[in-house]
Structures are given as structure tokens and as C-alpha cells.
Amino acid sequence: MDFNLPQDTLMLRDMLRRFVQKEARPLEMKFFTTGELEPEEKARLRTAIEQMGLWGLTLPEEFGGGLDLVSTCVIEEELGGTFIPIEIGAVTPLLYACQGEQVSRYLEAALAGDRRALIAAREPGSQGIWPEYWTTCAVSEGDNYLLKGKKSISSLPSENDFFIVIASASFGPTAFLVDADSPGLQITNQGEYQLILEDCSVPAQALLGEPGKAFQLGGDHARRAWIQTAARYVGIANRLLDLAREHARSWVSLGAPLAIRPAIQRMLAELHVDLESTRWLVYHAAWLADVGKREDWTPAAAEVRLASGEMLKRAVDRTTMLFNGPAPSEQTAPYTFIKSLVPYETLDFALECARAAIAHRLLGEIET
Is residue 157 situated within a structural domain? Predict the structure, then answer.
């Protein structure tokens, strides 16, 4: 077995590593302080990505990309090395189900970076990650649908943004494309951003994909995106390990650096092994997707989605304890950084989807 990356992929990795070091990381403290970058800074980062030929490269071939998944994971891991959210022309795979005028209005606009899709699936509350507890519904009314309920969202939308709202309907969970300025839609902040739908009327053309099949949207593209996301989490966790290691060496407590304490050493060792184990799972899944059959890599996609998400949460916990202990809080830099990149509400919902996929494969259909 040959575990070496191709020379072209190594060159791509090194180019991105230099970009992250020289262009992105110098902006991190400003981003951490203000929560955003200036328009000219965003434009400069995008121009650099375009000049390196990376914009849209990780998309499926039919949408202008076509890079193999192993190389795509290398890109994602390197970009995880900065806390600046760098865009590379990727979109949620749910949008690949767009049809008719949806293609130009939503998919192509998102691919160009002109519009952003915000997924509104999870609902407020501790049980909001489980679809069986969702109360948001879609009621057919003539040629339109009325959307009613509340959804948690990760960030405030801009004027051009739109939502992919997943609501319960008579035929099952269904996805709708909803513009941010739609009547009957408002945003509140109740400790988290919430999308409030009060008889929000959308046309039948807003239905995304087939009725009742919201969880099948994206198909294999969605599973490939799970692997890509896992690679990004590996990069983020690796950056946390670097920060934790440097802090352990430099911070002096009771007359000695933290690094001499056995508890700190154990914590760093566990973080490192956890990270390396997940990295191998990710690249094995990517390799299977590149060379294997669908039945070979589809289960691996769910496994790395679950493993990487749980690994990232543990990495945040350990790093936070090392910096400021004993648990994640708003005042600790690692947790605040990660929350801006990976909203935990969104992460928990994705992990539940992965668990369900793995359990279904292990148990099959269960008669009740």
C-alpha cells in the first residue's frame, strides 16, 4: 500500500499553507475582535483564491469542478488551519436539486458567490435536532404553501441571502427555497438567531427536490461533502493542537511551564491521537470515494462525519481546559473561534443525521 500523496497534491498543499500563513492568519485577531472582515479584505482573499485556481475547484464536475476527493480533503484541511472563514466557491449539496428557474436564481448565484444559502432545519430547544419533534409545518393553499413555525439559523442573513427551510408536510419532510425578504418571515435573537415563519407564503416553485424527500437531497454529493467537512474539522483541530502545545510551553504557572505537568501532557497526547485517528479515517474514506464502488464508501462517509464532529468537540473541550478550564465558555478564545466557524447547533444536527445513517446500516429496517 502506498500512503504518499501525489506530487501535484503536495504542491497544492504547500501553496495553500503559504496562503494561510501570509494572507489569512494576520487577519485573525481583527476577525476575533470584530466578528467580521472589511469588504476589501474579503475581496482580497477571494482574489487570491481565484488566482491560485481554487475557486469552484472542489465542486462536482458537472458544476465546474471535478477535483478528486483526496486532493479536495487536502484543501479543506489546510483551510481549517485558519479561523478566517475563507470561501472557495463551494455550496451546500442540497442546492444541486434545483430545477428550472431555481438554477439561475439560487444555484448559479450561490456558485458565483453572489448569494448565500442558510439551512433552516433545526428548531429551537434541546430536542430541536430530532425531526420527530419538529413543529414547523407547510400547509398547501392553492398554488402556494404556508410555512408556520420557528427554525434556528447560524447567522444573520444579508439582503441577497436565502433560506433552505425544511418543514413537515402531509407527504413528509420537505425543503423550500425562501428568500430573506419574503412576507411573513422575521429574524429574532433569543440567545441564538431564530427564523420566525408566520403564514409565510411561498409559491409551489419554491419546493426544492421532491415532496417528502428533504433528507434525500444531495444524494452522493451530500455524502462527499460530509467527507470534505470532516477534513476541514481535522484542520481546525490541528490548529487547536498547535495553539495548545505552544501555550503549554510558554505559560508559566507556580514557577514552571504548564508543559511539565502530567495532566497537561496526557491531555495533549490524547488530543494528538484523536486527531491522527480521525485524519486517517477521513483520507481512507476519500480514497474509497475516488476508487471504490458506492457501496464501499457511502458507509465510510457517515462514519467520518460522526467521528470528525465528535473529535472536534473533544478538541475544543481539551484546548479550552488547557487555556482557561474547566469547560467551554464564551470567554475562552478557542471556543469563541470555533463557534464562529462551526455553530454547535448545526454540528449536533449533522451528527444526529450521521448516527441515524450508521444505525440504519447496522440494523436495517425495524418492524414496529
Answer: yes
User: Which H helix or E strand runs over 208?
Assistant: strand 207-208
What residue type is assigned to position 43 of the chain?
A
Rounded CA gap, 36 and 348, in Å? Answer: 24
Which residues neighbour 172 within 8 Å (Cβ) at sequence distance 6 or greater? 211, 212, 213, 214
Q: Which helix (H) or strand (E) holds 234?
A: helix 219-250
CATH code at 319?
1.20.140.10
pLDDT band at 80, cuts 50/70/90? very high
User: What is the domain count for the chain?
Assistant: 3
Reported as a single tens digit per residue, the pLDDT across 328-342 is 444 445 656 666 566
Residue 104 domain flag: no
For residue 200, the SS3 value is strand
Same domain, 204 and 229: no
Q: Print the domain residue range for 64.
A: 7-90
- Of 41-55, 154-168, 195-209, 256-270, the poorest mean pLDDT is in 154-168
Measured distance CA(237)–CA(126) in Å, rounded? 26
Backbone angles phi, psi at 126, to 5 degrees: -65, -25
Is 99 domain-assigned? no
Using a 10 angstrom Cβ sphere, with 0-12 exposed, 13-18 middle and 19 or more buried, the burial of residue 8 is exposed
